[in-house]
Amino acid sequence: MNCQPIRWNTELIRRYDLAGPRYTSYPTAPQFRENFTSAELTAAIDRSNASQRPLSLYVHIPFCDTVCYYCACNKIVTANKNRARPYLDNLYEEMRMLAPLVDAQRQVNQLHLGGGTPTFISDGEMAELMANLRSLFALRDDDSGEYSIEVHPGRMNVSTVAHLRSLGFNRLSMGIQDFDADVQQAVNRFNSVDQVTALVEAARHEGFHSLSMDLIYGLPRQNLASFDKTLAQVIELAPDRLSLFNYAHMPHLFKTQRQIDAATLPAPALKLRMLEFAIDRLTRAGYRYIGMDHFAKPDDPLALAQARGELQRNFQGYATHGDCDLFAFGVSAISAIDNVFVQNHKQIDDYTRALNGKQLPLARGLALSADDRLRQAVIRELTCQFALDIRALEQRFAIRFDDYFAAELEALQPLAKDKLVTLTPEQIQVTAEGRLLIRRICMVFDAYLKVEAQQVKYSRII
Q1: What gap in Å lies between CA 6 and CA 431, rounded to an integer?
Q2: Which pLDDT score is estimated for 353?
Q3: Residue 68, annotated as binding a ligand
Q4: Residue 147 marked in a binding site
Q5: Is 177 annotated as a binding residue?
Q6: Which domains does the chain have, with CATH numbers?
Q7: Tens digit of pLDDT for each residue in 268-279?
Q8: Alpha helices in 7-122 (DSSP H)
Q9: 64 a known binding residue?
Q10: In the chain, N or C terminus with fewer CB closer than 10 Å?
């Protein structure tokens, strides 16, 4: 892995800053089909069992007690904590239906609770959830797995940190977004530096292996000075990983974003300047740019996996456990099992109705073709390693790269001329200028983009 720094080129960024997929999967979710059957899922689980790959589990807790105006996640906003009870009962029913299909000896190397706000549920309910998972799947009890949970630092008691650690969680992911009071007011999300500091200190005291924090640039009322202050405060807290996400204002798709005054959003030129400044600030502070919004300290497992050429990418983003099959539970959750993707119903009423009828809550899915898997491998290598070993790919998939991807190589020529990539018979190498535009480079290998161009609306790359 070439750990060269990013080289900022404003003219190229403006020219190539198109709308495109985030490539947490390939094919992307718009390709899933609604006639995917439980029989196809069962067959994929049988193949998965035969492989004896370890497991990754994802559990979606959709509830939030307040709404963050920028949010585009699948969520249910309610202050009524009692709404969690029937949902958890349905979640356990889904687990009990699926677990008997999975070889009980397969170890769970990775676990992630996401949302929504997973800590919306009480400490007692969290203990109950983990007990159910342990009774149904082979969770590790030696603290060697990567067991993580997302938390809202403004809505969480410090005492919960020790409770989560006692249940086996060893990684915390905190959604900070911005510390500036005006920005927080504009997006209705509040978490002070003092609150976050207390949680960070508690997590380190309890021996959490890793802390990650999310920031967003392009929020209403943000400016360079205010974001600089937030960055300085975050760097002082020294999380192991950082995500720096682009706010995509799409109120026609996400109703909560209609509560944001578009006139208060930073202008595109300022937004780019904020990103450039943030990348420079974080890299000077010692963070390594992993790719697509993510940074990590050089000794973090993400950075080490990338250096070894072992980094992977899945529906939760970059991962160090790419050898796992992902089983996901809860409303809207997406599984990746053997060669299929499967998504649950997005609406809680549909999810509940399926389980009440003793059916798995499958809404849609996709069985990957041979072409899908080949292109998936190309895109994963480019997004994770910023390079593609052509000869290794040819050997793995029994193809001649120049023949199979003749049109793609032609389409890469303008990008090579602009020094986003270098092309040789043995390798595609993403340059320092091209790393920020990796999504645009991957789009060359996406077979579905031309077909779906008029039907799917993506956010911009930068």
Answers
A1: 8
A2: 98
A3: yes
A4: no
A5: yes
A6: 1-27+369-462 (1.10.10.920), 30-327 (3.80.30.20)
A7: 899 999 999 999
A8: 10-16, 38-51, 84-98
A9: yes
A10: N
